[in-house]
Design brief:
14 helices; three-stranded antiparallel beta sheet; about 40% helix; nine-stranded mixed beta sheet; Arc Repressor Mutant, subunit A; TIM Barrel
Length: about 400
């Protein structure tokens, strides 16, 4: 089984493990992820022991699960030694049953890709790699603070595709000085290299990042909302024509090649978040739990060594809040949501009149089986759509 409780709706969505490796070679100026630079190096054996302890703690809270996906994110997990990755995956397999078709993804940066290291990850059990390419022109890569150039990015993609059956890479669009026509050309180039999956994100300026300070000072200008919508439309058109339609607002795949781990999030499944700053959603006898671990790596490490885990917050999520989370996550998907599941969580159904109004406005459509989903017109204004539905 994949969750406790005879009728909990997460039981069919799978059970995932997210392992957060928080270390990077450099901090990108647009990034607000929990990532840290440690020029003095990282004691990987010590951190591996701490991960093992936190894995054991989470396993004790989630007996009987079968792991359907594992995601090693960061940070830059490709800075780990293959032996460390093997130790993490062995620890997971030592505490839970593993599905025969488990998806095991590792995030990597092109600057840290080596063929030998990738073969080591494959031997450890990784079967899918996601590369943080971000751009295919050197000027943009420099502005984004990336440590690789376009030639190295293409080489890394080639190495990954030669070692792993499943690969993906990320690109950022609506960058400073980029036009929709330039993006169309770059995306067309990317699709010539994309085997099955692409993650395409519009650049957002996040508080607390160097880019936020530059934007506030007028030294960094990104496209306005109207132009951003043009970028989004170009993305949908070019990828759809190439056979990689969007299955989620920022993710495109050939049918059947969707990221199973990310689908688990968007379908509001159950997952354990392990490592510094990791978030989890677990199903316990007393309800659905949200967990958050200590964010700073050294604080997390000390807490695990003291307490056996680094969890700093555990919250019992009410049914109403679960319904809202389910709506926010699920409407990102092209497959949409089952309104019946929302009603079971919320204790009341969605407002049929509002659904009808949004359908009439061309922002929402009804799918077979009673599901509802955002239309191509509705997806770019999803926050407003969700607010209207949840009211």
């Amino acid at each position: 089984m994949t969750s406790t409780g005879p009728d909990h709706p997460t039981r069919d969505a799978g059970f995932g493990i997210y392992l957060h490796w928080p270390f990077c070679a450099a901090k990108c100026p647009y990034c607000d992820f929990n990532s840290h630079v440690r020029h003095g190096g990282v004691d990987q054996p010590r951190y591996l022991d701490a991960f093992r302890a936190e894995i054991a703690h989470n396993a004790a809270r989630t007996p009987g699960r079968t792991v359907t996906s594992i995601f090693l994110g960061g940070g830059t997990p490709s800075l780990m030694d293959p032996a460390t990755v093997a130790g993490l995956l062995d620890a997971v397999a030592g505490h839970w049953a593993i599905a025969p078709d488990v998806e095991i993804t590792l995030e990597a940066n092109p600057s840290s890709v080596e063929a030998g290291r990738f073969r080591g990850y494959r031997a450890a059990g990784v079967n899918r790699v996601s590369l943080g390419v971000q751009a295919f022109d050197d000027a943009s890569l420099k502005k984004l603070g990336r440590l690789h150039n376009a030639e190295e990015a293409l080489a890394a993609i080639g190495i990954a595709q030669g070692v792993f059956d499943r690969t993906s890479f990320d690109l950022i669009y609506a960058r400073p000085d980029q036009t929709p026509d330039l993006w169309r050309a770059e995306l067309t180039q990317a699709l010539a290299w994309a085997a099955e999956h692409l993650s395409l994100y519009q650049l957002t300026i996040e508080p607390g990042t160097p880019f936020h300070g530059l934007a506030a000072a007028g030294k960094l200008v990104t496209p306005d909302d109207e132009t951003g919508r043009v970028f989004y439309d170009v993305t949908q058109e070019v990828c759809g024509r190439a056979g990689l339609p969007s299955y989620e607002i920022s993710n495109h795949a050939r049918p059947g090649a969707e990221s199973r781990h990310n689908l688990l999030y968007w379908r509001y499944g159950e997952y354990a978040g392990i490592g510094p700053g990791a978030h989890g959603r677990l199903v316990a006898p007393d309800g659905r739990l949200g967990t958050v671990t200590e964010r700073a790596p050294e604080a997390w490490l000390a807490r695990v060594e003291r307490d056996g885990h680094g969890i700093a917050e555990t919250e019992v999520i009410s049914g109403a809040d679960q319904a809202d989370e389910f709506l926010v996550m699920g409407l990102r998907l092209a497959e949409g949501i089952d309104p019946g599941r929302y009603a079971a969580l919320k204790g009341r159904p969605l407002n049929g009149n509002r659904i009808g109004m949004l359908v009439g406005d061309g922002l929402l459509h009804r799918l077979p089986g009673g599901r509802i989903a955002a239309t191509p017109r509705g997806a770019p204004v999803l926050n407003a759509l969700i607010a209207e539905l949840a009211a």
